[in-house]
Amino acid sequence: MTPLRERANLDVRLLVPALVAWATTAALIQSPTNLVLGVLGTAVATVPVGFSSRPGCRAIGLIALATATALVGVLGHRAVADAGPIAALAERGSSVRVEAKVASDPMPVRARPGSPPTWRVRLQVNRIDARGSTTRVRTPVLAFGGEEFTALRWHERVVLAGRLQPPQRAGDVVAVLRANRVARVSPAGPAERVVEHLRTGLRTATSGLPADPAGLVPALVIGDTTRMPTQLEDDMRATGMTHLNAVSGSNVTVVLLCIQWLAGALRVPRRYRLVFALVGLGLFVLLCRPEPSVIRAAAMGVVGLLALRSGARKVGAPALAAAVLVLLLVDPHLARSFGFVLSALATLGLLLFARRWADAMARRLPPRLAPLAEATAVPLAAQVFCAPITVLLQSSVSLVGLPANVAAAPLVPIATVAGVLVVCTAPLLPPAAVALAWVAGLPAWGIALIAHVAAALPYGSLPWLPGWPGVVTLVLAILLALTTAPWWLHQLTRRRWSAGAAGITALALVVPVPSPSPPPGWFVAMCDVGQGDATVVRDPGGGVLLVDTGPDPDAVDACLSRLAIGHIDTIVLTHFHADHVDGLSGVLRSGRTVGQVLTTSVDQQDAAGKGEEASRREPTMELIARSRLPVRAVVAGENLVIGSVRARVLWPARTLTDGSVQNNGSVVLDVHAGGARLLFTGDIEREAGAAVRRELVDGRFDVLKVPHHGSANQDAGLIAAVAPRVCLIGVGADNDYGHPAPRTLGLLAGCAVLRTDRDGTILLFGSGDRLRVGAV
Predict the structure, then answer these.
(1) How confident is the model at residue 560 (pLDDT cuts 50, 70, 90)?
(2) How many Å from the N-terminal Cα to the C-terminal Cα in the chain?
(3) Strand partners, 670
(4) Which of 138, 142, 458, 572 has the fewest CB atoms within 10 Å, i.e. is most exposed?
(5) What pTM does this model have?
(6) Which of helix, strand or coil describes residue 538?
(7) Where is each Metallo-beta-lactamase domain found (predicted)?
């Protein structure tokens, strides 16, 4: 074990100016140029104050200088990006021909039924031909195209023809190009071709591994996530381990440590070791693609290495400040990037607390367990600083993130170093590279197993206030915990019985009582997923039909796990509103398998311009494509058979433009299961309800899934024609829509109405006239 090092004070004088410059950049990145110039002028005028002799003025001068530097970068990037006609042409939707350099690897976007998949690639446009004129530019553009995009390689020069459009949201690209023709002009340079050969060698060598390590090893080493299984991505996200499946500061730190070891083994003189390390880091960045996220990781990795070396801790804080300013100059849009925020905060946590906490833990552990101190302190410090920001991404605080990251920490460097060796040996000795791939794959497999197990643990996250109130609350809670920790530790050692009783009481308050298992014999279960729908129809032989997935992945996953659903034959997504499809990623968790996905055949882009809720078709189809699930659209008249479950598609037969196009495009199913007849109606409104009523031959049903969560926009004639005995309403407690509406409840008089907001998950038993209901 390394002897405990003497503490070194941190020099944080440059951190405040860097953080102020960062905040100013984030606030002004999308502001008008005149406002940015005004703030810049004020900052420049304030800089001379720092040279005066008055106390405190130097700090003001440094803040002004850092802010002015960052804003110069903002204006410089804006001037380069806006130079030329591309923004104006995009506003007019002009057809153009561009010459460009490929600036990123192609990534799949979506796969609509009956149409080829779409890919996106980032370009740096150097020349544009439009409206009879040619202009030299240097403008970032995001291009979308078909299968021909998969052949594009980083830094190739290409010619594309297509139509320009403005980007959907402000960001680091000036326009979007919908390409209809692509031609490759010249290949990438020798260095880029060598890098591509090395990346291909890594993918080839790891292709024989099981799915999880085959996807995770390239992600750990070079940030290539194209083969990451969806389930693994979801579980790593749920456990706070996503920093491992991308090029992050921790990866760079491991690589730098290896380079330093190699320099020592080669007996490189000490005065040249910094140059040796920087050259090695540059080659690693080139291998991973020198995109802004990789450059950010490289900078933070260097600072993180300084943070873990007590002899270099004095320069750690100035290095972090310099890294923040340099990265903002390289790409000002990083100021609003969650990845940048989390990376910088994690590095700050390492600087402030990791070494100190590691030393304190080591003093209290037996010598043989002392190495665990640093393995625990590093992720703990990073989690403490990053936790408040993650509340903005998900309204919960992970309770399994820290133990999962601590358990994975010893495996990460082994997998990373072995993966780098695979990259180096694949072009020369492919059999040796395959053997090394297994050396990298085994610890990667362990990391994946940790993610799966941690994600499946009950009560793995604590619900928290959403948005900025949640951030402020969590910051205050963390500050309170850090400042009172010594007192609590003292109380724990003095009053162990009282501490144990308090701990048990706290657990009783925050840990919910486990939900009971459902009784056997049910054939329909409407899951309680909040304001949304997710209903399971089960065949006694094990076949399962799932109609919609609700809005919350965690809620639908918990419901399906409680129902012991391990395989789903068919998922029907009635339409693409979030409360019916956003839970799909949760359905694909916990080792669950899916046979096929069926969707509405109505092109719900027809809703554009009508002020409707945004369609979630694109991200949903992208998830389905990544999960490699068969998917197709259904139309009226089709029949589905799942064991003894029979279903007929009653709707959509056409597109209705009256009312909500998306709601009225919902798939409506006539289902026979368990000796009962059920009508699933999605979110159809009055217009589609009347159309479905006219399609019914025998209108009476045992069970009605009430349309649109019981909204007032109902076709009364449909409810009267169906004459159900049991009515199911998937609805969230205290929802803002007033669902179910009193008018609709009046139409359901004479029907046994069951609601998920009051009854929880609803179960149907028996058959026909002997239907019984239950809830869990």
Answers:
(1) very high
(2) 53
(3) 648, 679
(4) 458
(5) 0.60
(6) strand
(7) 531-734
